[in-house]
Design a protein that fits this description.
Bound molecules: zinc ion
Strand order of the largest sheet: 1-2-3-4-5-6-7-10
Number of strands: 10
Structural class: alpha/beta
Order of helices and strands: HEHHEHEHHEHEEHHEHEEHHE
Shape: elongated
Distance between the termini: 33 Å
Largest sheet: 8 strands, parallel
Radius of gyration: 22 Å
Number of helices: 12
Strand content: 5-15%
Length: 314
């Protein structure tokens, strides 16, 4: 970045406290951070330490960020990643937004064939400690019920980035998680923004894709619970907010629907608990009803506030 562009860029950074990294600018953003003799070194480090919201658009900028935070990240062994270290820069990040291009790369990556990508995620994980994170919608649309489980693969990989973060909120745009073990522990709020369906803008009441998808979501919520319908102890303090449910399907997401779906999928009103005893599914839901009533929120499009990380509403 020429000086005539770089100086106003750094000044705007100081002004807005938001930094968006993408492949065409990232090398310039971090160009001077390792040269302490550079006259603007201290100012640039100070400006980067004023940033509160960091958007990482693609893998190229994630790599440059990892190297800026820890120049030795590629030669670290796995025991190092469990420790946190305080970097010299970006010390005050509280919000991180992950862009679509980065999410696509993580989803398609393979830990054996591309270990570098996972070292990038682990370097960022152990250097930064945000309290709010959002994941942009992948460009790959999951269309068939059988493919929905693909999303487990995505979250099974992003966990290398967020596993040890203590998050106030995790926002997911247009995708769904499946498995509690891939989420950071102790998240206060999980927010899911659903994608628009072309059918819902035409006023269609239902479409088979969305009905399948909602059925899958209810199954996922069921998976978060012990098999008798009670909310798992580790999720009892987590609020789940579902936004922009397409068509008129929002009313499907309620306590009665949950217990009805669970009874349908078990093909019985009772289930066997871990001690081998028969327990009523409906009684399990009733015991957890305060959790469901207080911690689940479903909002249609018009009622949704923008994402606090990236500002999007879908
Ligand atoms: Zn639809
Ligand atoms: Zn967002």
């Amino acid at each position: 970045m020429p000086k005539s562009v770089r100086t106003p860029f750094m000044q705007s950074l100081a002004h807005c406290k938001d930094l968006t990294l993408y492949k065409h600018i990232v090398k310039d953003v971090f160009a001077n951070i390792h040269s302490s003799l550079n006259p603007s070194y201290s100012t640039e480090i100070a400006l980067l330490n004023m940033v509160k919201t960091l958007t990482i658009q693609d893998i190229e900028s994630a790599k440059a960020l990892a190297a800026a935070l820890d120049p030795s990240y590629l030669i670290r062994d796995s025991t190092f990643w469990n420790k946190n270290h305080t970097p010299r820069l970006l010390k005050n990040i509280t919000v991180i937004a992950l862009g679509t291009s980065l999410i696509d790369t993580i989803w398609d990556s393979n830990k054996i064939k591309q270990p570098e990508i996972f070292k990038v995620l682990q370097s960022i994980k152990s250097s930064l400690a945000p309290t709010h994170v959002c994941v942009s919608a992948p460009s790959k649309r999951v269309m068939k019920l059988a493919e929905f489980h693909e999303e487990e693969l995505l979250f099974g990989k992003i966990k290398y980035l967020w596993k040890t973060w203590n998050l106030e909120s995790l926002t997911i745009h247009g995708a769904w998680f499946c498995d509690v073990k891939n989420l950071p522990s102790n998240i206060k709020t999980i927010k899911v923004f659903f994608s628009d369906c072309p059918g819902s803008s035409k006023g269609e009441k239902h479409c088979s894709r969305c009905i399948d998808y909602l059925q899958y979501i209810v199954d996922c919520i069921m998976d978060m619970h012990v098999n008798i319908g009670e909310v798992r102890p580790e999720l009892r303090g987590t609020r789940l907010e579902l936004f922009n449910i397409p068509h008129f399907l929002a009313e499907w997401i309620n306590l009665n629907a949950f217990s009805g779906f669970k009874i349908d999928s078990e093909e019985s009103t009772v289930a066997i608990d871990i001690h081998g005893e028969e327990k009523s599914i409906r009684d399990g839901f009733v015991r957890s009803s305060d959790c469901y009533i207080n911690n689940f929120k479903v909002l249609s499009k018009g009622e949704v506030a923008p994402c606090i990380c990236c500002g999007k509403k879908i």
